[in-house]
Amino acid sequence: MSLPSNFQASVIASCADPSPCDIVSQHGKRIIKISDNKVVKWGPDITNEEAENQRIAYNIVDSRIARIPRAYAFFSDERGWGYIVMEFIEGKIIDPLEDDAAIRKVAGVLDHFSTLGHTIPGSLCGGSCRGLLFPETEDLLFNSLEDMEKWFNSRLFEHDPKLSFQDSNLVLCHLDIALRNILWQEDGPPCIIDWASAGFYPRLFEFCAQWVIEGKDGSYNSRLLNSMQPLSDRETAQKDAFLCSWRNIQKYPLRAKR
User: Fold this and answer.
1) Domain endpoint, select from 87, 110, 128
2) Are residues 60 and 114 in the same domain?
3) Model confidence pTM above 0.70
4) What is the pLDDT of residue 25?
5) What is the CATH number of the domain that holds 111?
6) CB-based contacts of 129: which residues, under 8 Å, 6+ apart?
């Protein structure tokens, strides 16, 4: 959906000086309501890749299990700040989330995501790998599971355990299922927002995204992990090596050869 320039200018002006009643975001990100059924997510870190990820997720995810706001359009301003025009969905963030039935619903969403596969790792739209599990200083693109395995192993020292993804399937992973990214509707499935980090990765990655932030959302992270369909023994055996590699990425952010 292309947007006329006068509409883009109107959106930019609305975002620059929003009415308090139009501010939808409850946690940091700027989300502004521009009509009864549309909002705009905007900011210096909002990209076309995120919009494309969300568009693809909307098309492939079963809407009876998880609601994804439809992304209508993306544009950027002269500063390079991005704007995603998307469907407005009425809902609320529950934080802390202590209802076991609700946590099981989130786990069911992730279990459903794990049934949606692909053949090449990376973002849903084929762009760079983003988010908590990857360094922000590199535009990481992998042509195969083997390439990604080599990259993670390049971050391990000789005495560290090595990763093996060769028997792993690439499945849809959101990688940021934090409480701030779940909207609860009065009637309907959980609505999952913020698709910037999403991609096709081994299912282990979704677990690791919770392990590295465990405790930041109270007991939610551990309870969610316990509610998800468990990893296989082979997948579980990769946990220590993956987390070791991730810690090394944080400590030693220099570019490694792939």
Assistant:
1) 87
2) no
3) yes
4) 78
5) 3.90.1200.10
6) 121, 122, 123, 140, 141, 142, 199
pLDDT at 191 over 90: yes
Residues 124 and 14 in one domain: no
With b for 16 or more beta-carbon neighbours within 10 A and e for fewer, the 138-172 pattern comes to: bebbbeebeebbbbbbebbeeeeeebebeebbbbb
Taking the C-alpha atoms of residue 96 and residue 155, their distance in angstroms, rounded to an integer, is 35
Residue 253 confidence (pLDDT) = 64
Assess whether 135 and 235 both reside in one domain: yes
Q: Which domain holds residue 163?
A: 100-251
